[in-house]
Description:
The chain contains 16 helices and no strands. It is mainly alpha-helical. Helix 7 (about 155-170) packs across helix 10 (about 220-260), helix 8 (about 170-185) crosses helix 10 (about 220-260) and helix 9 (about 210-215) packs across helix 10 (about 220-260). The protein is globular and about 85 Å long.
Amino acid sequence: MASETDSAAQALPTGSGGSPRNARQAWKTLKGVLGVLAAVAFTFLGLLAITFFIGRVVPIDPVLAVVGDRAPRAVYEAARIEMGLDKPLIVQFFNYVGNVLTGDLGMSVSTGKPVAEDLARVFPATLEMATLGIIIGVLMGVPMGVYAASRQGSLLDQVIRVVGLLGYSVPAFWLGLVGLALFYAKLQWVGGPGRLDIFYDGMVDPVTGLILIDSLIAGETDIFFNALSHIALPAAVLGFFSLAYIARMTRSFMLDQLAQEYVTTARVKGVSERLVLWRHAFRPILVPLITVIGLSYAGLLEGSVMIETVFSWPGIGNYLTTALLNADMNAVLGSTLVIGAVFIGINKISDVLYRVLDPRAR
């Protein structure tokens, strides 16, 4: 009887639930998750510190922005005390951190509304335009880079390199103005500045803040196509700058891979050129390419100030510009904080994708 029990125990798999191996694996996974959360927390704390101290060293008095230049001294001091600016700097910092963690970014002088409410209203517009821009950049830039590398020195390679050079050298505002003059004013292929025609403004409830999605949810196809005509040109301009960077980096990565011995071996074995490019050479560059795409996307989210100004696009770039002109420091710091948080989030998403695509990173 005892021998039968021992045989049954030996027949159990070593990886069954509750085994030391599974416990160690679970603890290792938990440590990894806690490490990522700790890194995000410390990075965000550093971002809070940078934005706070920048707001204190810039030559702009937030009290004067609220009470005005001609306010009596007593009113100025009362506002200063109410805003907590009479306290030591370290106390002001901890108060600032506490307010941010509770979602309180202060009141905007420009709009008279909470900054968090303003950012929740304007950020989706930037997100929508930047997302379309990065989609255009990836769908066009990656194939351009791959085929330019496969035909190094050819006419196609030279044309793609010139396109990349233009993407780095042409000013964004100039390209936007030329696009408006040609495709909107002359050819009338696209909508003008803004997200919608005035006639459609306010006709769709902002469920997600993304007008293309909200119009589809509401079943308003006319508004969807109108919004699409307005976003097409600014998204295409952003996509042009994005594809220039992505194509250039993809070409560089592919040239390095195409020079490897395993690619030569595949060609000698008679593997088709398409499989050599996309299966053998392209797969190893996915991990560094994710970094390039992530940084490009983050750059579009925070660097579209000129495009939003040219196209009167009601996004975070336009909001930040207005806040700077009005010395609205709460809005400036809140916008900077959101942009920095976007960078942190995209970097962490890139780290997760590394582990999914490259088993060696696990």
